[in-house]
Specification:
seven-stranded mixed beta sheet, glycogen metabolism, alpha/beta, UDP N-Acetylglucosamine Acyltransferase, domain 1, 9 helices, Spore Coat Polysaccharide Biosynthesis Protein SpsA, Chain A, about 425 residues, glycogen biosynthesis, six-stranded mixed beta sheet, single chain, nucleotide-binding, Nucleotide-diphossugar_trans
Amino acid sequence: MELKVLGLVLAGGKGTRLAPLTAERAKPAVPFGGKYRIIDFVLSNLLNSGIYSIYVLIQFRSQSLLQHLRDGWQFGGMLQSQFIIPVPAQMRTLGETWYKGTADAVFQNANLIEQSRPDVVVLFGADHIYRMDVRQMIAYHREKGAGVTISALPVEKKFAKDFGVIEVDDDGRIVGFHEKKPDAPTIPGRPDMVLASMGNYVFEADLLLDLVDKDAADPASGHDFGTDILPNLIGRVPMYAYDYQTNHIAGDPEDKVPYWRDVGTLDAYYEANMDMRAIDPPLNLYNRQWPLRTAGYSDPPAKFAFDENARRGQAIDSILCGGCIISGSTVRRSVLGRYVRVHSYALVEDCILFDDVEIGRRSKIRRAIIEKNVKIPPDTVIGYDIEEDRKRWQVTESGLVVIKGERSPVPISSISV
């Protein structure tokens, strides 16, 4: 089946629950797994699925995201049909407003769909950690003769308030859609689980244009797919749920359970990072048949220095990126970004350290997220006395210490006058 497919990636979210990590960047630009950004997962999924025509709709605090897209996601320009283009809010509505919701974001960029005339549009979010062969979802969409297909998976009922919850019949057709309702219906026979929308959609292109056009003209609408458009399509348009658990990635074992995480809170973000550094990670970063792409930098390899009693450079059950130097110190169960320095006699356990973090001598750090460019002085203790930590830094309910970073300097060119 030959289809023209256009990818629209919604990457404009504020990510307020991830503050302070989102104080200077949009949620999709938040670092993840050491060298990656959250948006790398959806873009890698689309490219690995053969979808090369992609617009990234951006909005809030977009500079970090724009720089990352420039550094890691620019094609050579040889083929006009292959592109990843960031698109700011174009303010095409009469009020010239920012995006009012996900449907309004598509409406304000309807010209991109009209100009490319695709058969289907894949409309995906940019704030989840997962792998997915989108071709399998598109094939299911066309086999069912659907107008709209929503990827879905079971989650615990206690999380119903955070998702759109779907009801389906025996054929997978959607017969109910409940946006963020704690009392949403559970899966038949599984009273502790609900079928949650992943926020990834496949639309017939003409239908999508018609839907957002009518929605924009409705003054009572909140202009959001989950709240307004999808619930009102029940019984009017063939709408199906695609079971994400049936999706298989090339290079993974046949019995591998698909991994998906919503990293909308600091604790969820931390746990997902810790998943990546596990001995047998649920999401395999080392599958060469389904590469996770990102910006490439000419970093030197990680380095471990000294081999003396009490002063041995070592990292255990951890992920370290290029440029790291572990100098006579110990790192356990942690994720370290680029150019992290951990000085002699220091101990780092169960931590996420962003790029250019420096841990001073004899410091002891555990269960912390430390942002870019933070310099921890020698003999600092973090994560051992939570009440003392609260006086200086942000601490989550689970006792995770989060330390806000500093802006990175930007080198600019100079001239002789």
